[in-house]
Amino acid sequence: MNLHLPPEFVVPDYANGTIGNVPATVAALLGVPFRGLLPLAAPHWQPLGQARRVVLLIIDAFGWNLLQKERDNLPGFMRQADVEGQITSIFPSTTVAALSSLWTGFAPAQHGMVGLNLFMPQYAVTMQTLAFTPAFDKYPDALIKAGLEPEEFLHGPGFAQQLLTYGVPTYAFKGREIVHSALSKMHGRGVAADKGVVTAADMFVQMRELLEEKAGESLFVSAYWPTIDTLSHVWGWDHAAVAAELWAILAQLEREFLDRLSPAARRDTVFLLVADHGQIHTPAAQQIYLEDHPVLQGMLFMTPAGEPRTVYLYVKHGRQADVLAYINDNLGHAMAPIPAQTALSAGLLGPEPFAPTTAERLGDVLVAMRSGYVLLLEKQRESARKMIGRHGGMTAAEMQVPWLGYRLDA
Q1: I need a surface site. Which of 121, 209, 278, 362 has the fewest CB within 10 A?
Q2: Nearest-angstrom CA–CA distance, 159 and 101
């Protein structure tokens, strides 16, 4: 990409190597046309053959590093995949952007969801995209009340809409508390049913019951479970509690779903497992506060957008070169600043065509954090102590995720 990025960064290959390529891969397995990014490289899916039914499980923050650390302790089916490999998240490696790519088959620059906190000029506010609330405080769905339609936020059709065109219904499984959220409405365009669940066990039982009820019918199932991410934020990705939770999820998956499906429900069915991103440790010693750099702060005309691991700076007129120079001279050990238009043109957030809103949401300078550094505001200092693990950046820990595929009727 000719961006001269730090060597520890892992750049996504949107041609055939990211989670954004998963929807096209599912469509290829189902034998239906798809408009968006291309499928993953052939070895990641062609050995599975054609299918009439595909089940995709997304385990939030199940990074490649966590799989490698716990591989020998996991249930046996994890060592019996028909295809296994490493792919990457998209950039920025944050849940809202990653799930949007998994629900559209487009890269962030194409669908427009490029971060957790996005400047929305038409409403003169920075929006926290998980809850459609102004970022400065919690007013859930406030932007919806102001006129923003979640179903119209992402550019391009939803994956479920594309599949439905060819007669394949989509069923989504997720926690009850988020079934009716703005983000769920954004992703669920064209979904036949959103299934709310209480626990991981509940989800796997409901998935099994659906496949039994729909035996012989074409379908796509997308299931999402968040607790690895939640625990990794609190304790760090390599904590014993995270390992225990991962084992519990996968053991229930094996017992309540994979082992108990009837031959009729297994027929022509492929099961896929992936993560949206991994996590990295962000210790207190690597927390940088904007207020400690008043010269830099004085060159910005608003509070940064994005998130602590990938920051979007809005720069006062004529000061972009000064901002780049200040960061390189004073903070280059902790972050890599890139002119936002350069990052976009180079394809860091995906290939063209870009969503018409993407450029304005990236601001003037994109800052990608190195190692475990984060860029925060003073008001975040107390809460930052409780956030041991994070994601959103381009390190291997955040970007590299497992990809496993199983032919269930083999």
Answers
A1: 121
A2: 9
3-state helix, strand, coil in the chain (%, to 5): 40, 20, 40
What does the pLDDT look like over 257-295, one tens digit per residue? 999 999 999 999 999 999 999 999 999 999 999 999 999
In this structure, which amino acid lies at residue 74?
L
- The DSSP string of 315-332 is BPTT-HHHHHHHHHHHST
- Segments in 156-262 forming alpha helices (H): 159-165, 182-187, 200-213, 227-235, 240-253
Distance of alpha carbon 123 from alpha carbon 120, whole angstroms: 6
Query: Contact, 104 vs 36, CB < 8 A?
Result: yes
Contacts of 326 (CB under 8 A, 6+ apart): 293, 295, 296, 299
Asked whether the beta carbons of 144 and 134 are under 8 A apart, the reply is no
Rounded to two decimals, the pTM is 0.97
Query: Distance between CA atoms of 338 and 360, rounded to whole angstroms?
Result: 15
- Say if residues 145 and 100 touch (Cβ distance below 8 Å): no
pLDDT of 73-103, one tens digit each?
999 999 999 999 999 999 999 999 999 999 9
Q: What separation, in Å, do the N-terminal and C-terminal C-alpha atoms of the chain show?
A: 41
